[in-house]
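Exercise: predict the fold of this chain.
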Amino acid sequence: MRLALLMLLLVVNVADAGEWPNWRGPTFDGASAETALPERLDDTTRRWMQPLPGVGDATPAIWGERVFVTAIDRETSMFVVLALRRSDGEVLWKHEVGIAFNPSHRDDLAAPSPVIDGERVVVLFGSGDLAAFTHDGTRLWQRNLQKDHGKFTNQWVYGSSPLLLDGRLYVQVLQTSPDALAGTPRTGSYVLGIDAASGKDLWKHPRPCPGRGESQDSYTTPLPFTSGADTSILVLGGDCLTGHHPLTGVEQWRFTGWNTTKAKDWRMITTPVAVGDRIILCTARGRRLLALTPDGMGGMRQAWSSDALSSDVAAPLSYRGNLYVLNGDERELACFNPADGALRWRGDFTTTGVIRASPTAGDGRLYAVSETGEVVVFAADAFRVISTTTLPSEHPGRASIALAHGTVFVRTADALHAFAQP
């Protein structure tokens, strides 16, 4: 009876395949079950374009008739969240969340992506401002994580997105703390469990790590991983991957060892992906592709590794039984067998700008966008560039493409574009 009730709760809290409730989509792997998506994003398929009040790198979240997106308002210098009507891009409401500032040219602090369920949308900014709204725009609660838990110390400012799962928010703060004695884990990082209805902390769990210097910093996003009857919240950074109990935050297992030289500059940017019983991650600086699997004793073991292609920024993608890795600096895309790491195909492509956004997939195609607004559409079954379109943008953009309700949503730094079949 208890198991049946748990399964029912999980079913009702999972987003419909047509929605895009977070940065990595309805199944947390960058993929969508959408069909009838356009393969060319041009004037023939453009539904609408909505200028945004300012820059931001957050991927939009889509639920029903609303598209939620964040930005830094250029006129007021405030962090803002907007709700747009999905059919025509009209702004339905806009709220200020906090005072914006820009200490670094490499991150605008409006990088964390909104997360959404059937009741609320939650937004987080690099300032630590965290707020929840109803879909109609009523503010439910607001707080600041730096005020509650201390100043962020990431070298390149805070940039992780939250995870919203079964009415709970999971927020990781993996950051630099001074190096202690040799062999002593640093303890300035932590993971938070937050009640999404009230905004209050349910638990705070320290997250010590073996990383040194900047290697303690992480800009990844927590993800769920289910193996058998157990679900863990994955947290990657600080030279280790950890699994945490979703109700208590207690660390269930830990895997480390890829930074064999103890390098101090191996900050982690690339979020992992779960594919069946595999957790696949790109080690820092795009050095290696690594797959882990449960060892049967409550921990994790290495299933395989590959040096064929990895990524420093863009997250790996799981789609239709394949694992895709896009290296945005080298302009390479590769397809692997997620079971054993065998390389299925690999190819080079051309863009003027580098790609910092993670690829997404739907309707048999992969979609990626460069910092300069070049949208590249790839075939998923073999390496082939289907189309390339450049969208104008005055600033570099790093938001991933979202797929929902037969529409491709492309967020450049200061505008949101929607494309669909005629």
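Check your answer against the key: The helical segments are 2-13, 145-149.
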